[in-house]
Amino acid sequence: MQEFVKTSAAAPNSARRLSPSRSIVAAGAFLGAVVPSIGFAQVAPTSLPVQGSQWRYTASIYAYLPSVDGTSSFPADGQGTRLNVDGSKVLDKLKLFAMGTAGAHNGTWGVFTDVVYLKFQASESASRDFTIGNVGLPADASAAFDWEMKGTAWTLAGEYRVASAPSYTVDVLAGTRLLDTRQHLRWNIAGSIGSLDPAARSGEIQTSQSTWDAIVGVKGRYAFGQRREWAVPFYFDVGAGESRYTLQAAAGLGYQFGWGEVTAMWRYLRYDLKSGSNFQDVSFSGPLIGATFRW
Fold first, then answer.
1. Which of these, 277, 252, 283, lies nearest to 30 by C-alpha position?
2. What is each CA distance from 66 to 10, 104, 112, 248, 252, in whole angstroms?
3. Sign of torsion over alpha carbons 129, 134, 138, 144
4. Which tens digits make up the pLDDT trace of 182-194?
5. CATH numbers and ranges of domains, the chain
6. I need a surface site. Which of 84, 108, 127, 151 has the fewest CB within 10 A?
7. pLDDT tens string 101-130
């Protein structure tokens, strides 16, 4: 895992106050997230090709609207004291997003990739959704924050079909997932500051972190209806590497048209990152909807 931090103290008070409690949301929905950021591509249909058939290709666009739970941690002074921010809040402002997937399958072997880019901004004044170091927040302490978060989640994996019938397919998969985050935080703390260096009562920090993990999993779909136009896709993966572990699960309902398929799903994505990381115990859960084009 690569992590870079740039800090400066005594930043000027900003009229725009921002809540880093939202920073967890950004990671992921990288993860992803993050995120990744990933569930739709892996379960997007490949039109149930039979084994040994020619290669078929898919491309998908989708939107994901998760709720987020977790903790974000920022080094605040030269003595190692950290600002730990509660991330279980609703995202304030999503400024920019881009999400897409692509895949190929010949009925036996396949490959897919998924990329999500998110940019978040938020502001908050008189916030108490944080702690200083490893102790509770003093009763009279509060803070104003300005925060910007940019994140990318990228998944790349190969797959092998282990079961196939006219109405269902099951594939096993193996690959890698990257979670890359960049944050810019300004803060101004009022009241008691505990173990924090007084010079760091107000400050500014820029952080970046890249986390790579290997993943394995299973994906598939069950088709039904008079022409098998309806389908239930499902996906699950688990992995580890530069994080303690990551896992993802998704399932939903799709409907096929002549040009492709529209799918609505529920996706859960979790990262348990190692100590010292900017993000820790991050999870995303919520609906996604997307359109898949086939050729």
1. 283
2. 35, 27, 22, 13, 15
3. negative
4. 878 787 878 777 6
5. 2-294 (2.40.128.100)
6. 108
7. 899 999 899 999 988 787 777 777 776 666
